[in-house]
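Sequence only, no structure available. Ideas?
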Amino acid sequence: MLGTLNGALEVRGISLPPDAIRADVTGLNEVRDRLPVLTRIAIHYTLRIPAGSRDTLDRALTTHQAKCPTAASLREAIEITWTADVEERE
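Reply:
I predicted one. Tokens follow.
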């Protein structure tokens, strides 16, 4: 989803250097029939964006999960959630 988010930002004219966009991901396994099964993925983004681009970022965040091929592939099997810390910089 990070790549989809980054692509959505670039299409909207916001190109972030690698050190300005980060995702920390945690997976939760549950045991089902004695097998560990991945059931949830939580993504936490840390973004440093140019000042004045928060509205554009918020629009990209709102739609990126629905447009991500990986998230679409996992949608029926795994719950995916995301949060974001955003810092605007001059």
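The mean pLDDT is 95.
Hope that gets you unstuck.
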